[in-house]
Amino acid sequence: GDSVTQMQGQVTLSEDDFLFINCTYSTTWYPTLFWYVQYPGEGPQLLLKVTTANNKGISRGFEATYDKRTTSFHLQKASVQESDSAVYYCVLGFWNYAQGLTFGLGTRVSVFP
Amino acid sequence: VTLLEQNPRWRLVPRGQAVNLRCILKNSQYPWMSWYQQDLQKQLQWLFTLRSPGDKEVKSLPGADYLATRVTDTELRLQVANMSQGRTLYCTCSAALQGARDTQYFGPGTRLLVL
User: Fold this and answer.
1) CB B74 within 8 A of CB B28
2) Residue B101's pLDDT is what?
């Protein structure tokens, strides 16, 4: 079946540090790749989306790069702020709506001033 | 702009009792509605996607049984039964112009705790 792997369960940073979250996936289909972010007490919200036709997505200072050869989809930000503290999910989406979205386990990012 | 309203926002559920949740769509441009569960470890899992009034689906997962119903074009319901562990249920909506590759918008969630 389809799966998403986020090896980092938790990342602790100071403001202005560089953030990098690694994600790999496995599927026999052609997915669209998402990063969703969840702030405390809220539902998840889309951070950015990348299709397999283009290799990169950028939003709100975050950048995600897709590598078809290694089936990886990394998220990075050059300089984090305390307001970036949240849980970040790597997610697969497919054409067939009956499959829903497939979520990774999430990476909790804590940024301290 | 809030696309989805969920109620109740939280509920204490006596063990063995069922609970009914509602989700109201505020913008008809996003008619594909779904339910997702988030367990206590924050793992998110898709449950159902229902498009048309009258659509119903059931599913049993570890820790709970679910019955979802699309009541109207703007209302989605979920009955949760036999829940053994707490969880949060999220309603989502999407335009689905590209199937599940479209952005899904999540509601604020309903948190369920087992008594």
Assistant:
1) yes
2) 73
Question: pLDDT value at position B100?
Answer: 66
Chain A residues with CB-CB distance to B98 below 8 A: 32, 95
Task: State how far the Cα of A94 lies from the Cα of A100, in Å rounded to an integer.
Answer: 8
Token duo for residue A12: 């602790």
The more confidently predicted of residues A17 and A95 is: A17
Inter-CA distances, A82 with A15, A28, A52, A63, A109, Å: 6, 38, 32, 18, 10
Q: Chain B closest CA to A51's CA: distance in Å?
A: 9
- The answer to whether residue B99 scores a pLDDT higher than 90 is no
- Which residue among B45, B101, B106 places its CB closest to the CB of A43? B106
Note the pLDDT tens digit of each residue in A56-68.
889 999 999 888 8
Residues of A (11-30) whose Cβ lies below 8 Å from B: none
Helix (H, G, I), strand (E, B) or coil at A112: strand
A88 touches chain B (CB under 8 A): no
